[in-house]
Structure formats: structure tokens, C-alpha cells
Amino acid sequence: MNTIMAMSGREYVSKVLSNLERDNPLEKEFHQAAKEILESLVCILDKHPEYMKLGILERIVEPERVFMFRVPWVDDNGIVRVNRGYRVQFNSAIGPYKGGLRFHPSVNLSIIKFLGFEQIFKNSLTGLPIGGGKGGANFDPKGKSDWEIMRFCQAFMAELYKYIGVDMDVPAGDIGVGGREIGYMYGQYKKLTRQYEPGVLTGKGLTFGGSLARKEATGYGLVYFVKEMLKSNKMSFDGQKVIVSGSGNVAIYAMEKATELGGKVIACSDSNGYVYDKNGINLQTVKRIKEVERKRISEYVKEHPEAEYHENMKDIWNIPCDIALPCATQNEIDINSAKALIKNGVKAVGEGANMPSTLEAIDAFLENKVLFAPAKASNAGGVGVSALEMSQNSMRMAWTFEEVDEKLKGIMKNIYEKSIISAEDCGCPGNLVVGANIAGFVKVADAMIGQGVV
Ligand code: GLU
After folding, report:
1. Are strands 323-326 and 348-350 parallel, antiparallel or unpaired?
2. Considering only Cβ atoms within 10 Å of each terminal Cβ, which end of the chain, N or C, has fewer?
């Protein structure tokens, strides 16, 4: 007797979520990501009971496989250090596993699983043939010399290379992993496998198979997405006060594009604190501090004495603004920050980081009619261009910056339109959280059904 068939979509979702919490205790970030997605699928589950019958949710919340491994390396003082490495291969229904690597001391299984789970739906939304995966290590790149970074990347790849491949699993960057780290890992992969296979990693340097516009893609894509959302609501970036948290790769290029479209970016941050510059953030200074010197954002005020530096980075959300683009990290906007933004009249929030708003914060934005662009839709430009990098590598060709940028614009517009249509179909017009989750889910679920119970 199949009791599932007697269940409503809501009951089925509650059952899967409570089993998930029981079977994965302590993985709170993973619980949060799963809850956000699954709860918005109720309407589609009621319409399509076959998803329940075929156990799609039970299968989709369980990674296809997880690797956890020791990463031993030697620091500049000759001391042996050991970190823990991860690769979660979550879902390969629509393509090889695809997703970044995060090097940050907070990395644990819960963080990698939440990121890998989000990646399944984000990658599906791009419309390109990429499955979902994620990896990383609890390694802290802060304060490490370039040689230490290289030795760590080589040690990490000495194990990871066994599990990846151009048609199997294609990692890229995330927090703490940029072009430099991808380059060191690619060199090690090539040495170990004796194959010149650039398509095995994305975000590479331009001299060895990297794509033009990959570096800019997540930030630019976020702004293209928010631009569409504003346009549908008869608004634009022009003349708006924008706050972008973070000052890494996503934040820098979100600031660049928002400024190009007429917005005035007045604040940005790093994990130590934030800078408020009422004259508008000088992006050349930020780029030099972060991309060249690899220093802290507090350096900014040394050159711009009219700007202010404050230590608590969460307080950045207390500054009045029209558009908020959280581009730092998960759960950086809690309910208090959301309330402060709403009180100060924020019109739109576009997520550049992965899961930067808590569930309560999202609810507050939606209830207060703030236009809200959820990460898996709005930050999909990075992985979208990664998939374009894979295409270029397969063709052994390179597109121009303009060609890639045009394709990126098309991808973001398409994600916006798909999400709006899905939200409408499910009786939640304008709710991009529900729309993006459903649009991303349906393609993966149908591919899983088509491939049988595997
Ligand atoms: N880490 C990025 C993300 O969260 C990019 C992943 C990729 O390019 O594979 O989507």
C-alpha cells in the first residue's frame, strides 16, 4: 500500500523535510536550503502526483555521492598542516556535476551540501546542460603566502583529480577560490593525468582556456537580472542608491555594472567591516585593494578620507538605500537587517551571494512588497558563463567578450521570464522565489523520471 499516494503535496514535503532533518542532524544550512526549495514545490506536486509516486523529492535531497578527504600540506615555516576537503556530487540528471570550490574556515559538510543543493536548481535555470555539485575545504586563505596557496591547491587536487573529469564533474571557484587558485589546481590536474583537458575546471586564466567575461559574469548577471525585475515594475538603476555587501569577485562586478547603469553605490564590505562613501564608492581603489594587493577593505579610507569605515559588517544594512545587493555570504541578512532595510524604504533586493537572506528575512521582503531576486536565479550568471567556458573548450575556440556578454544577458533575461511564468502558473504572481524553484526543479525532475530509478 503506497501511503505517499494518499498524501497532499504539503504532507509529502513535510515528510521529506522531517526525514531529512532526522537523517542529517546538525546540517542546519542544508536544512534551510532544502526547506526554502521544497516548500515552494507544493503546488507543482499537487499538479503532478507522479513526482511523489516516483520518490523524486527523497531522491533529490540525497547527494549521488560525497567525498571527504585529508589535505596535508607544509606551510612556509616547515610546519605540517592538515585540512579537510569535500566534493559533493549532488545530481547529474541534466549534465555533469558542476559547481564551485569554496576555501573558507567555516566550510563543513552542511555548507557544501546546501551549496550543492542550490546549485542543482540554479544550473537547471541557466538552460544549459549542467548538473549540480560543490566542494571546498576548511582552509583559510587569509594571510597565506602565494607559495602556501599553491602548495595547498596542489595538495587538494592530488586527491580531487580522481573524482572529476570534463564529462563527469567540473569544479570552478567560489569564496576563496579565484583565477589564481584555479590555475594552480589545473596545473596539478594536468601533471597527474597527463591530459590537456581545460574543460575540467572553469574560471581558468585566459591563456589556458578561460572564457572572457567569466570573471565579471556573476556580478554583471546579477545586475542584468535585477534590471529586468526593475523594468517589469517600471523602475531602473538610474539615480538609485545601491548597497553591495562584500568586496570579492561577485561584489566588484555587481558594483561596476550597477554604476554603469546609472546607480550610485554608496557602501561595500568585507568580513571585518564596511565602508560608507556618500560620494559613491571608487571602484578602482576597491579593485586595487582586493584584486591586486589582497588587503582588507579598511584600507579604502586611507585614500578616501571623506569615507567612513565601521567594524560591524552587518550594520551595512542600516544605511538607507533603494537597492540592496547582498554579495558576501550566507545568512548575512537576518530578520533585523531585513526590517532595517524595509523601514528605510528599500525597493529591491537582489541576491549575489548564495542564500544571503534567512528564511524569515525573505518572508519579510515578500510580505512588504519589496522586489526580491533569489540567488539561484539572480546569481546564476557565473555558472552560466562557466558552462559557456566548457562549450568553448570543447570547440577549442574562444568567443569575444561581447559575444559572451550578450549570451549572459540572454541567459539572465530567460531565467527572469521563466521564473515569472512559473510563479504565475502556481498562483503566486511576482513571487520569484517560488517561480525560480519550480522552474529549476521541473527540468531536473523530468530528466530524473526519463532516466528511470537510478
Ligand atoms: N560558485 C559559483 C556559484 O555559486 C560558480 C560555480 C561555477 O562556475 O561552476 O554558482
Report:
1. parallel
2. N
Domain boundaries, the chain: 1-62+430-454, 65-197, 215-373
Per-residue pLDDT at 3: 65
Distance 99 CA to ligand 1 centre (A): 5
Q: Regarding beta strands 97-103 and 131-137, do their DSSP bridges make them parallel or antiparallel, or are they unpaired?
A: parallel
Identify the pLDDT of residue 1: 44
The three state secondary structure string of 214-235 is HHHHHHHHHHHHHHHHHHHCCC
Q: With cut-offs at 50, 70 and 90, classify the pLDDT of residue 434.
A: very high
Q: What percentage of the chain has pLDDT greater than the value 70?
A: 99
Ligand 1: distance of its center to the CA of 317 in Å?
Answer: 25
Closest ligand 1 atom to Cα of 98: 9
Residue 251 pLDDT exceeds 80? yes
Kindly give the distance from the C-alpha atom of residue 174 to the centroid of ligand 1, in angstroms, as a whole number. Answer: 6
**Strand blocks (E) in 122-240:** 131-137, 169-172
By CB neighbour count within 10 A (0-12 exposed, 13-18 middle, 19+ buried), where does 66 fall?
A: middle
**Which whole number is the average pLDDT over 107-129?**
98
Catalytic residue flag (residue 134): yes
Look at ligand 1, atom 10, and give the residue with the nearest C-alpha.
383
Q: Tell me: the pLDDT tens digits for 146-172?
A: 999 999 999 999 999 999 999 999 999
**23 C-alpha vs ligand 1 centroid, how far in Å?**
27
CATH numeric code, 65-197: 3.40.50.10860
Q: What is the pLDDT of residues 341-361, one digit of tens each?
A: 999 999 999 999 999 999 999
- C-alpha 13/C-alpha 34 separation (Å) is 10
* Average pLDDT of the chain, as a whole number: 97
pLDDT band at 61 (very low <50, low <70, confident <90, very high): very high
Annotated active-site residue in 113, 134, 290, 376: 134
Section 66-84 average pLDDT: 98
Q: Is 172 in the pocket of ligand 1 (CB under 6 A)?
A: yes
Query: How many alpha carbons lie under 13 Å from residue 411 in its C-beta half-sphere?
Result: 32
Residue 383 beta carbon below 6 angstroms from any ligand 1 atom: yes
Distance of alpha carbon 338 from alpha carbon 239, whole angstroms: 22
* CATH code of the domain made up of 1-62+430-454: 1.10.285.10
Instruction: Check if the beta carbon of residue 242 is closer than 8 Å to that of residue 265.
Output: yes
| 174 touches ligand 1 (CB under 6 Å) | yes
| Fold annotation for 215-373 | Rossmann fold (3.40.50)
Answer whether 169 contacts ligand 1 (Cβ < 6 A).
no
* CA 101 to ligand 1 centroid distance, Å: 8
